[in-house]
Design a protein that fits this description.
Largest sheet: 6 strands, mixed
Structural class: alpha/beta
Number of strands: 15
Shape: globular
Bound molecules: zinc ion
CATH architecture: 4-Layer Sandwich
C-alpha cells in the first residue's frame, strides 16, 4: 500500500473517531415527531420486525463448526436480513450474502463442496415490496458481526449510523482484519465511511428499551446479538452466530474458527441468562428450518 493511501486511510479513521459516540445527525431523527404525536403515544406505537431471504449456504463438511458429521444432518443454513421498524426509524440487522451473488443463477458450488445462493438482492426486494423504507432511509445499521455472510448488502446501504462493537470496528479498519477469518474487506468498504457509533457493550438503540444490541463477543471480537421486545409476539433474540446449529446450542459447541473460545462460552451464558430472564424466543438465524417456518416480508412480526 502506498503512503498516500495510508494517509487517506488515516484521515478517514480520524474522521470516524470524531464521529464515535456522537448522536446521529439531527436530520435523521426528526421524521417521526409530528406536533400531534406525544412521546407517550409514540412509545405505544408497535415495532414491526420484517424478515428477508438474504441467501443460503450449504456445507459438505461441518468439521469447522467443531461438529462430527453424525452430530446433526443439517448442512444447509439460512442467512436472513431483518429490518426492525421502530416509530423512531428503521434498524437493519444483518445483510446476508454478497449482493453480487444474486446476478448468478442457482447454487454456486466450490471445489470443496461449499455452496451459496442468493436469489434476489435486499435492495431489489425492498424496491419490489415497497414497504415505505429502503437502504436509503435507515436510521441505524448493525451487523451481528463482520463475517462475509452477514454484511453482503453493506455496500448498498446509503443511510443511517453504523452501530458496531469496538472489536469488530478495529478488525474492519485494520490491514488484514487482525486475523479475524471470513472477513471480505471489500464488502465493508462503504459502511466504514458512514457515520459510526462504536459500542463497548450493550446498547439501547432507540432509548426506550425495546430494541437492544447485546454484546456477545467470541465468534468475532465484536460479535453481538439483538433483543427486540415485540408487543404481540413477545421478546425475541436474533442470535447472530452465537450458534449455527441447534445441536451447537444444546451442547455449547464453539466453532473452531471463533477468535476466542473462552469468551464465546461466557457470551453463551450471558445470552442464555437473558433468554431465561426475559422469556424471549431465541431465533437462531442460520437455522433454515426455523427460517422456512417464519413469516417473510411484506408480512411482519409485531
Ligand atoms: Zn454466519
Amino acid at each position: 500500500m502506498g503512503s498516500f493511501k495510508l494517509l487517506f486511510v488515516g484521515l478517514i479513521s480520524l474522521f470516524l473517531i470524531a464521529c464515535e459516540g456522537g448522536e446521529p445527525a439531527q436530520s435523521q431523527k426528526e421524521s417521526v415527531s409530528g406536533p400531534e404525536v406525544t412521546g407517550r403515544e409514540l412509545a405505544m406505537q408497535p415495532i414491526k420486525l420484517y424478515i428477508f431471504d438474504c441467501g443460503r449456504l450449504r456445507f459438505a463438511s461441518i468439521a469447522g463448526f467443531n461438529l462430527k458429521q453424525t452430530d446433526t444432518d443439517v448442512r444447509e443454513l439460512s442467512t436472513p436480513c431483518y429490518v426492525i421498524d421502530h416509530p423512531e426509524g428503521q434498524l437493519l440487522w444483518d445483510a446476508g450474502l454478497p449482493s453480487g451473488l444474486a446476478k448468478q443463477e442457482g447454487w454456486q458450488v466450490q471445489e470443496d463442496g461449499f455452496a451459496s445462493i442468493l436469489t434476489e438482492s435486499l435492495t431489489s426486494q425492498l424496491a419490489r415490496l415497497n414497504l415505505g423504507f429502503d437502504l436509503g432511509s435507515l436510521e441505524y445499521v448493525a451487523f451481528s458481526h463482520i463475517h462475509w455472510d452477514h454484511v453482503g448488502a453493506a455496500n448498498d446501504v446509503a443511510s443511517g449510523t453504523w452501530l458496531v462493537q469496538q472489536g469488530d470496528y478495529d478488525a474492519a479498519h485494520a490491514e488484514g482484519s487482525l486475523g479475524v477469518p471470513a472477513v471480505q474487506s471489500e464488502l465493508l468498504a462503504r459502511i466504514k465511511n458512514r457515520p459510526t457509533q462504536v459500542l463497548n457493550g450493550d446498547h439501547d438503540v432507540f432509548g426506550d428499551g425495546r430494541v437492544r444490541v447485546i454484546a456477545a463477543e467470541g465468534h468475532t471480537p465484536g460479535h453481538q446479538v439483538l433483543y427486540v421486545d415485540l408487543a404481540e409476539t413477545g421478546p425475541v433474540i436474533l442470535s447472530g452466530d452465537l450458534y449455527h446449529f441447534r445441536y451447537s446450542r444444546r451442547n455449547r459447541v464453539v466453532p473452531l474458527f471463533n477468535v476466542d473460545a473462552e469468551q464465546t462460552l461466557l457470551s453463551m451464558d450471558k445470552v442464555e441468562e437473558l433468554v431465561s430472564a426475559s422469556g424471549a424466543d431465541f431465533w437462531l438465524q442460520h437455522d433454515a428450518a426455523l427460517f422456512d417456518s417464519q413469516k417473510k416480508a411484506p408480512a411482519y412480526y409485531q
